[in-house]
Amino acid sequence: MGPLTPEQRRRRWLALAVVAVAYILSFFQRFAPAGIAQDLAATFQTSAASLGVLAATYFYIYTLMQIPTGILADTLGPRRILALGGLVGGIGSLLFGFAPSLDLALAGRTLVGLGVSVTFIAMLKLIAVWFEESRFATMVGICMLVGNLGSVLAGAPLSAMAQATGWRGVFIGVGGLSLVLAALCWLIVRDAPGTGQSAPRPRFDRTVVLSGLLAVLRNRSTWPAALVNTGMSGAFFTFAGLWATPYLMQVHGMARAVAANHLSLWFGGFAVGCLFIGGLSDRLGRRKPVMIAVSHVYVAIWLVLLSCATMPLPLSYALFALLGLSTAGFSLTWACAKEVNPPLLSGMSTSIANMGGFLCAAIMQPVVGWIMDLGWQGEMVGGARVYDLATWQHGVLAATLCAVLGAAASWRIRETRCRNIWQAN
Predict the structure, then answer these.
(1) How many Å apart are CA 94 and CA 105, to the nearest integer?
(2) Share of the chain above pLDDT 70, in %
(3) Is residue 62 a contact partner of residue 115, using CB atoms and an 8 Å limit?
(4) 424 pLDDT exceeds 70?
C-alpha cells in the first residue's frame, strides 16, 4: 500500500469512526435481551424456553452469515454491505420495538441478527485495505475495545433506560440510529483509497471457495481453536446474553440495578481483556500456555456461579470483573486458527473458529430455557417466572459444561509461537 494523502488519512479515520459506532450497536444488540429479560417475559407472557428462542434468533442468523460475509466483503465491498446491513438491522430493531406479539418480535430479532452480522468482517476488511499491515493487530484490538462499549451499554445503562422510557423506546431509538449509520456508511465509507479508478474486486470461483473451505476444515489443527471458542464464548453468549440478570436477581436477591452493574463489569472486563490477553500472548511469544491458564480460570469462576454461594458485594463485583477478563481468552482462538492455515485462507479460518461460539449460543439459550421450564414451580412475580435454587443450578450447569469443553480443548491447541506455521504442517 502506497502512502496516503492527508485527505485520504482523514477519510479513513472518519470512515472507521462510523463503522466503530455500528460495531458498538452490534454488541449492544447481541447482549440486550439479558438487561430486559424480565421486561420481555412480562410483556409477552412467555416461558423461559420461548424467551431463549427469542434471544437465540440473533445467533442463528449470525452463525449462518459468518462465511458468506467474508465472501461478500471481498466481492461487494465493505461500503455496500455495511449500508445494507445497517438498513436491515435498523428495520429489525424498529420491528422488535413495536412488536405486539412474540412472533413479530422474533422476526425483528432475526432481521437484527442478519443486519449486524456483516459489521465485524467488513470492519476488518476496511482496516486491512486502509491501514498499514504493521498496524493491523493494533487497530483490530482498539476497535474490539470500542465495540465492547456496546456490551457495557447493554448492562446497567440499558436497564436504567428501559425503566425510564420502557424497553420498546430503547429499541426504536437504536433502530433509528442504525438507519442513520447506514446512510453515513454509504456517504463516507469507501472500499479502497481512491486512485482515479474503481478498485478491482476479486471474482470468486465457487470451486476455489469450497476447496479452500474444505482445506481449513480438514486441517486437524483448526479444530482445537474452534472448540475452545465454542466452549468459552458459547457459555458467555448463552448466559450473559439472556440469563445473567435474572440469575443474580432471583438467586442472590439483588436489585435490578445491582445485577445490571455486575453484567456491565463482566462486559467491561471482557473489553479490557481483549487487549490485555492478546498483548500478553504476543509479548510472551506463546499461545497455548496463555490459552490453558485463562480457560481454566474461566471454568473455576463458572464453578463458583454454579455453587450459587452467597458472598459480600465487593467480592461479587470483583468476581465478575475477573470473569470478564478471563472470558476474553477466547479472542486468542482467531490467531490460533489463522496461524495453522495458509495465509490466503485467513478469512475462512477465523470465520470457522468464530462460528462455534455463535452456534453454541443459538443452541444453548433455548436449551437452558427448556431446563428452567422443567423445574418451574408456577411462581410468578410481575408477570415473569421465578425459579428456585435447584432449577437455576441445572441451568447454570449447562453453561458451565460449555466452559469445561473450552478448557479441555485448550490442551490440544497447537503452539505457533505467534507466527504462521502452516508450511510446517
Answers:
(1) 10
(2) 93
(3) no
(4) no
CATH number of 219-425: 1.20.1250.20
Helical H runs in 99-221?
102-116, 119-130, 136-147, 149-153, 156-165, 167-188, 206-218
Report the interhelical angle of 48-75 vs 6-35 (nearest 10°).
Answer: 160
Contacts of 398 (CB under 8 A, 6+ apart): 238, 364, 367, 368, 371
Over residues 371-380, mean pLDDT: 90
Which three cell numbers, joined as nine digits, stand for 46?
A: 412467555
Question: What pLDDT, on the 0 to 100 scale, is given for residue 31?
Answer: 85
Contacts of 311 (CB under 8 A, 6+ apart): 319
Residue located via cell numbers 477478563: 325
Is 1-192's fold the same as 219-425's?
A: yes
Mean pLDDT value of segment 172-189: 95
pLDDT above 90 for 304: yes
Question: In sequence order, what DSSP letters do the residues of 299-323 get, joined into one string?
Answer: HHHHHHHHHT----HHHHHHHHHHH
Q: What is the rounded distance in angstroms from the CA atom of residue 91 to the CA atom of residue 112?
A: 8
The widest CA-to-CA distance across the chain, in whole angstroms, is 69
DSSP 58-99: HHHHHHHHHHHHHHHHHHT-HHHHHHHHHHHHHHHHHHHHH-
Q: 289: which residues sit within 8 A by CB, 6+ positions away?
A: none
Task: Indicate whether 53 pLDDT > 80.
Answer: yes
CA atoms within 13 A on the CB side of 131: 19
Cα 143 to its chain centre, rounded Å, is 13
For residue 105, give the C-alpha cell. Answer: 418480535
Grid cell digits, residue 2: 502506497
Short-list 132, 143, 3, 121, CA closest to 62: 121
In the chain, the amino acid numbered 161 is: M
For residue 384, give the 3-state DSSP assignment: strand
- What residue spans define the domains of the chain? 1-192, 219-425
- Position 372, amino acid: M
CA distance 338 to 141: 16
pTM as predicted = 0.81
Long-range contacts for 313-317 (Cβ within 8 Å, ≥24 apart)?
Answer: 313/258, 316/252, 316/262, 317/261, 317/262, 317/265
Give backbone dihedrals phi and psi of 259, rounded to 5 degrees, phi first: -60, -40
Tell me, rounded to whole angstroms, the distance of Cα 201 from its chain centroid: 28
Cα–Cα distance for residue pair 277/349, rounded to 1 Å = 21
CATH number of 1-192: 1.20.1250.20
